[in-house]
Write a structure and sequence with these properties.
Order of helices and strands: HHHHH
Largest sheet: none
Structural class: mainly alpha
Radius of gyration: 16 Å
CATH architecture: Orthogonal Bundle
Shape: globular
CATH class: Mainly Alpha
Number of strands: 0
């Protein structure tokens, strides 16, 4: 029985992707896996509800200033340091 439990726990670990290091700055507002917008008082999208392509488009838009609403200034600063690879990793982690 102990072996079955250990095997189940080990396999479950593979089912959840690890957060990219660049996500550390995101989770304060967007939750552990992009599942919330509660700290932004519903002024932002819930990233986990977006497709990977929508996340890439929005993060690139924040970066170049072509996208955003009430939190545009905050987000522009957050994404300024992200590379294209970082943005894709975030989309892969949070998106549908």
């Amino acid at each position: 029985m102990k072996k079955i439990v250990l095997a189940t726990v080990a396999l479950a670990g593979f089912a959840f992707a690890a957060a990219p290091a660049s996500y550390n700055a995101c989770k304060a507002c967007h939750g552990v896996k992009g599942e919330t917008n509660i700290t932004t008082q519903n002024k932002s999208h819930i990233p986990a509800n977006l497709t990977k392509a929508e996340i890439v488009k929005s993060l690139n838009g924040y970066k170049d200033g072509s996208y955003g609403g009430a939190l545009k200034g905050l987000m522009k600063g957050q994404v300024a340091r992200l590379s294209d690879a970082d943005i894709q990793a975030l989309a892969d982690y949070m998106g549908k």
